[in-house]
Amino acid sequence: MKGTKGFTLIELIMTVVVASIMLAIGIPAFLNLSERTSVATTSNELLAGVLLARSEAVRQEVNVTFTPQADGWQVDAGAVNLLTHTVDSDSVTVGGNAVTYNARGRAALADTDSITISFDGEVKSRVCLSLTGRPFIRLAEDGGCP
């Protein structure tokens, strides 16, 4: 009798079952990774924008305003636009009040001022602003800004 080549029906069914289990585990993990990456990227870009506003205020010795918008942010030195940034993801939104830095790099802030980064409407991260105007990133799961 000749040896047969190929797979049996049982082997094919087991392969499909194992592949299904791997996909059921892998897809949610990939979506979570995608969400965390989008939030982290936006948080870092927003932090860079706030730092740009602060450093340009000191460098140019003028008031510079950082204005968050739902789909991004804008940095203006008086009537001159220094930066307009749009967030790449439709699921990520930015919220908060405008921050104006003076020529010394300080901003008039409340002790809990922050700019929020939300994913599908849920706050995931904040760029907190200290009383001196120095920005730093804080995850929403770590609580509010000090």
TrEMBL record:
Question: Where located?
Answer: Cell inner membrane
Which InterPro entries would you find in this protein's record? Answer: N_methyl_site, Pilin-like, T2SS_GspH
**Record key words, sorted:** Cell inner membrane, Cell membrane, Membrane, Methylation, Transmembrane, Transmembrane helix
Q: Which Gene3D superfamilies match?
A: Glycoprotein, Type 4 Pilin
The membrane topology noted for this protein in its Swiss-Prot or TrEMBL record is: Single-pass membrane protein
- Major localization listed first in the record, in broad terms: membrane
Provide the transmembrane region boundaries.
12-31
Gene Ontology cellular component annotations, sorted alphabetically: plasma membrane; type II protein secretion system complex
Q: Which Pfam families match?
A: GspH (PF12019), N_methyl (PF07963)
One of the GO biological process terms: protein secretion by the type II secretion system
PROSITE patterns xrefs: PROKAR_NTER_METHYL
- Family, per entry: Belongs to the GSP H family.
Instruction: Indicate what this protein is called per its UniProt record.
Output: Type II secretion system protein H
Q: Which organism is it from?
A: Candidatus Thiodiazotropha taylori
